[in-house]
Amino acid sequence: MRPAALGGCMRRSAADLVLTGARVRLGRDHWARTVAVSGGRISAVGNDLYSVRDLIGPHTRVIESPGALVVPGFQDSHVHAPFAGLDRRRLSLHDVKGRSAYLEAIATYAHRHSSNAWIVGGGWAAEYFTNGCPRKEDLDSVVPDRPVFLFNGDLHGAWLNSRALEIVGITKHTPDPVDGRIERDPITGDPSGTLQEGAAYWVNDHFVPQPAQEEWEAAILEAQHYLHSLGVTGWQDAWVTSATQTAYESLARQGRLTARVVGALWWDRNRGMEQLPELLERRERGLAVVSPTAHLGSGFLPTSVKIMTDGVLENFTGALLEPYCDGCGGHSDQRGVTYLDRDLLAAAVTELDAQGFQVHFHAIGDRAVRESLDAVSRARSLNGDSDRRHHIAHVQVVQPDDVVRFGELSVVANCQAFWAQSASERDDLTIPFLGADRARLQFPFAALLASGTRLAMGSDWAVTTADPLEQLEVAVTRTSPQDRDHPPFLPEQRISLDDALDAFTAGSAYVNHDDQGGRIAVGSRADLVLLDTDIFAPGFVTDHAAPIADARVRLTVAGGSVVYDAESC
Fold first, then answer.
1. Secondary structure of 33-101 as H, E, C letters
2. Residue 385: enclosing H or E segment and its boundaries?
């Protein structure tokens, strides 16, 4: 957007909203001071209130905010909104710290919900337990009479009490599933209370009571309200099941979905190509949903497919090219898990690409990243170039040879920036088992940018914070906003605030095929965020300080409608 657009008007009718006094970021080094919104779209930008005086009518809301900042609405390219919202309505341990605090919270919740047949929730962190694995005896001490099932924060494992293990029939004689692991007592061989990956999901899918549609709808609305309060106006849901799709569609029909949501339909790793007709039917059904009362640009678009290629490094299911270290200076015989055979992955991606689906990969380890890139390369060689905008989420360990392939293959790096900081879980449960050389390859955001890769950003909420400002700060500093004096994690991979903000707005909008989002320009859909602080002010971000996360969202506008106003909360 060039400054010549300042003062231009889309039409002459009165504006619904005018933001003035704040700096308005139109693009790198391009600024305005006023933006007007009419009929859901940006109708004018200007240097001052006088420049849009003709658009101010008796019902125009004018907000003057000197010292503030207006940016495009944030878009989260990888989030689990229904599950995060469900956690906020159930037993959530995400904001609880430590083993004893977990047990106190669990006991309190169980007492308050004495009629619940199961105690269900999640959010615990592996760092508070020996080898990252909590034990059943701790849960037994606070809930001995009812089954307890609690996913961990990253949704790759679960903590169960003895009653739950008894109900589902897991004993010392139960074999590990091919896509998971039952943690066992080293002396007795009995299940110790932690289930990893497929073992956890087998219990969840077959025994844990599932939410009704009304509960899923309430969970999505809970998540939507929270995300709007953080300036998020759209997202890509990275795990859409049949149940959550139905809930999204219902909310879209009712006009209650005020965000623009792209749904990544879940690829069942226990099935093969026979599931493709079902995915096509689900896409057709979702795209047919129309609401006469929908906000401009809002709705649910199930146009992506999520493929889990591996697990996570902390439980040794992240797929590596070379074996894990044993933490004692040697190597183990473990290379992690790939959930789809390499040939099946390539075939699935090729067919999904041919059918017009975008593929949203989960890839943590360097082998998973390479096999995902190989699958896209195969699809391109057979189908030709397309505008699918395939993207790989997490990109935790990426070999230098593969960094350059992202740009060559037009694959977007979907970055979870908040992970790119020092943390006890990473220091204790990841780096010793990666070894020094591979540890230096983690979250190579700057290297990806330098190679010509387009970046998008997603929170992975509720795994980590949904707050874009906290994530932006970590991307810029590689240090936690809660411990700014801590040495940065691989500081050579820091990126600029311009690059980080563009990734969280235009980059994620690109992934979501949203050509109206991620920008402030006359005629575009009015997705806007008013921050109380100008984080681009000269001297705000320096080599020694970048308190981006201290800023707060004052107003969020989605499709021209105010969906969050701090003054009314």
1. EEEEEECCEEEEEECCHHHHHHHCCCCCEEEECCCCEEEECEEEEEECHHHHHHHHHCEECCCCCCHHH
2. none
Q: In angstroms, what CA-CA distances link 112 with 75, 106, 109? A: 36, 10, 5
* 52-71 residue pLDDT tens: 999 999 999 999 999 999 99
pLDDT score at 336: 96
pLDDT digits (tens, 9 = 90+) for 221-270: 999 999 999 999 999 999 999 999 999 999 999 999 999 999 999 999 99
- What is the β-pairing status of strands 157-160 and 148-152? antiparallel
Sequence-distant (≥ 6) Cβ neighbours of residue 19 within 8 angstroms:
34, 35, 37, 63, 65, 70, 528, 530, 555
Distance CA(418)–CA(457), nearest Å, equals 10
Q: What is the pTM of this model?
A: 0.90
Q: Would you state the pLDDT for residue 2?
A: 36
Strands (E), 416-565: 455-457, 528-531, 553-558, 561-565
Give the domain ranges of the chain: 3-66+522-568, 81-206, 213-511
CB 85 within 8 A of CB 220: yes
CB 472 within 8 A of CB 404: no
Question: What's the fold here for domain 81-206?
Answer: Diaminopimelate Epimerase; Chain A, domain 1 (3.10.310)
Report the distance separating Cα 393 and Cα 379, nearest Å. 18
Spatial distance between the Cα atoms of 561 and 555, rounded to a whole number of angstroms: 10
CATH superfamily of 3-66+522-568: Urease, subunit C, domain 1 (2.30.40.10)
Q: What is the reported pLDDT for 340? A: 96
Which residues contact residue 427 at a Cβ distance below 8 angstroms, ignoring those fewer than 6 apart? none
The 3-state DSSP class for residue 184 equals strand
Contact 24, 521 (CB under 8 A): no
Neighbours of 384 (CB within 10 A): 9
Which CATH number is 213-511 given? 3.20.20.140
Q: For the chain, which ranges sit under pLDDT 50? A: 1-5, 7, 11
- Which of 546, 547, 548, 567 has the alpha carbon at shortest distance from 556? 567
Question: SS3 of 304, please?
Answer: strand
Q: Which residues in 154-259 belong to E strands, given as ranges?
A: 157-160, 180-184, 191-197, 232-240
Is 519 in contact with 234 (CB distance < 8 Å)? no
